[in-house]
C-alpha cells in the first residue's frame, strides 16, 4: 500500500507520501512519511513537461518528515490487519514503546501523526515558488535530496550572483568528486547565463 497526497500551490506541486518499508515487526508493517516539493520552473529549465501528479521521488526537494521536525519519530508502524479505510485508526508509533494495544493508545499516536503532518503543511503553506523556498529555512535542509537545488532555483529566477556563489561553494566542497568543477557544473546544469562569469574568473 502506498499513499500519495498532492496539491498545487503557486508554481509548485507539493507531495506528502506514506512509504511502506520492507521491514516488518511481528504482525505489523513499518512505514515512513515523506515530503516533496516540485518546481514548475525547474521542469521547464530542463525542457521537461510539467507533471501535475509527480511522485514524491520525482520532486526536486524531498526529505522524510523526521528530517524537518525534531519531535517526529523516525518511523511508524501499522497493524498487519489494517485495511486502507482503517489506516489512520491503526497507526502506531515505534520508539521504545510497545505497539499500541488499545484504542486509547492508538488514538494518542494517531493524534501525534496528525499534529506532525499539520506542522509540515503549515510550513508548506509558506512555499509557492522558488523565491519563497529560497527564503524558507528548508533551503538549508541537508537531506533535501538535491545538492544543486538552491543554485538552480536562484538561476531560474534570474538571481545570477547567488547562483554563481552557491555553485562555486558546492564545487569547492565536493572537489574530490569527478565532474564537479564550476565549468562542468555550468554545462551539466545548463546554466548558460553563467558562462560569462567563467571567463571573468579565469
Q: Low-confidence spans: pLDDT under 50, at least 5 residues?
A: 82-90, 92-98
- The gyration radius over C-alpha positions equals 20 Å
- Rough outline: elongated
**In this structure, how is the largest beta sheet organized?**
6 strands, antiparallel
Distance between the termini: 54 Å
Please indicate the percent range of residues in DSSP E strands (runs of 2 or more). 15-25%
The total tally of domains equals 2
**Residue-averaged pLDDT:** 83
Number of strands: 6
The helix count comes to: 8
In helices, the fraction of residues equals: 25-40%
- By helix and strand content, what is the structural category? alpha+beta
Spell the H/E element sequence: EEEHEHEEHHHHHH
List the defining traits of the structure above.
202 residues; alpha+beta; 2 domains; 6-stranded antiparallel beta sheet; elongated
Write the layout of secondary structure elements.
Elements: E1 3-9, E2 12-25, E3 28-39, H1 40-45, E4 61-64, H2 65-68, E5 76-79, E6 91-93, H3 103-124, H4 130-134, H5 149-156, H6 160-173, H7 182-188, H8 195-200
Helix pairs in contact: 5-6
What does this molecule look like?
By secondary structure, the chain is of the alpha+beta class. It has two domains: 122 residues, no CATH class; 54 residues. It has eight helices and six strands. Strands 1, 2, 3, 4, 5 and 6 form a six-stranded antiparallel β-sheet that branches. Helix 5 packs antiparallel against helix 6. The termini are far apart.
Brief characterization of the structure:
The longest helix has 22 residues, at 103-124.
Amino acid at each position: 500500500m502506498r499513499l500519495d497526497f498532492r496539491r498545487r500551490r503557486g508554481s509548485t506541486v507539493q507531495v506528502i507520501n506514506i512509504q511502506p518499508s520492507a521491514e516488518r515487526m511481528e504482525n505489523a508493517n513499518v512505514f515512513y512519511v515523506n515530503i516533496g516539493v516540485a518546481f514548475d520552473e525547474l521542469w521547464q529549465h530542463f525542457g521537461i513537461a510539467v507533471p501535475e501528479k509527480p511522485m514524491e521521488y520525482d520532486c526536486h526537494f524531498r526529505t522524510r518528515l523526521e528530517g524537518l521536525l525534531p519531535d517526529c519519530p523516525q518511523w511508524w508502524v501499522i497493524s498487519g490487519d489494517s485495511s486502507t479505510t482503517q489506516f489512520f485508526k491503526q497507526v502506531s508509533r515505534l520508539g521504545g514503546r510497545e505497539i499500541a494495544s488499545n484504542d486509547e493508545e492508538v488514538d494518542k499516536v494517531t493524534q501525534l501523526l496528525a499534529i506532525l503532518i499539520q506542522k509540515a503543511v503549515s510550513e508548506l503553506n509558506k512555499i509557492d515558488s522558488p523565491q519563497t523556498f529560497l527564503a524558507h529555512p528548508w533551503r538549508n535542509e541537508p537531506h533535501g535530496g538535491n545538492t544543486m537545488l538552491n543554485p538552480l532555483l536562484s538561476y531560474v529566477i534570474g538571481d545570477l550572483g547567488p547562483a554563481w556563489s552557491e555553485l562555486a561553494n558546492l564545487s569547492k566542497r565536493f572537489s574530490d568528486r569527478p565532474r564537479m568543477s564550476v565549468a562542468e557544473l555550468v554545462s551539466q546544469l545548463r546554466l548558460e547565463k553563467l558562462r560569462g562569469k567563467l571567463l571573468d574568473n579565469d
